[in-house]
Amino acid sequence: MELTLESQGYLEALYRAYLEDPFSLPEEWRRYFSALTLETSRREPLEDGRRATPAPLAEAVDLAFLLKVERLLQAYRELGHLAARIDPLGRERPRPKELSLEAHGLTPKDLEKPLPPLFGAPTLGALLEGLERTYLGPVGFEVAHVEPEERAWLLSRIEAPWERPPKEVRRRMLEHLMQASLFEAFLQRKYLGAKTFSLEGLESLVPLLLLAVEEAARLGVREVVLGMAHRGRLNVLANVVGKPFERIFREFEEIFPEGYSGDVKYHLGFSNDLATPHGQVHVSLNFNPSHLEFVNPVTLGRLRAKQDRFGDRERKRGLALLVHGDSAFIGEGIVQETLNLSRLPGYRVGGTLHVVANNQLGFTTNPEEYTSCRYPTDIAKMVGAPVFHVNAEALDELWFVLRLALAYRQRYGKDVVIDLVGYRRRGHNETDEPTFTQAPMYALIAKRPEPWKVYGERLLAEGVVAEGEVKAWEEAYLARLESEFARVKAEPGPVVPHGLSGLWQGYVGGPDASVPEVDTGVPREVLKGLLLRLSTVPEGFVVHPKLKRFLEARREMAEEARPLDWAAAEALAFASLAVEGHRVRLTGQDALRGTFTQRHAALYDYQTGRPYLPLQHLAEGQAEVEIHNSPLSEAGVLGFEYGYSLDYPEGLILWEAQFGDFVNVAQVYIDQFLASAEAKWNRLSGLVLLLPHGLEGQGPEHSSARLERFLQLGAQDNLQVAYPTTPAQFFHLLRRQVKRKIRKPLVVMTPKSLLRHPEVVSPLEELAQGRFQKVIPERVKGARKVLLTSGKVYYDLLQKRRELGAEDVAILRLELLYPFPEADLKEALSPYPKKTPVVYVQEEPVNQGAWWYLSARFCGEIYGHPFRVVARPESPSPAVGSSKVHKEEQGKLLEEAFK
Question: Within its chain, how far is the Cα of 334 from the centroid?
Answer without folding.
Answer: 9
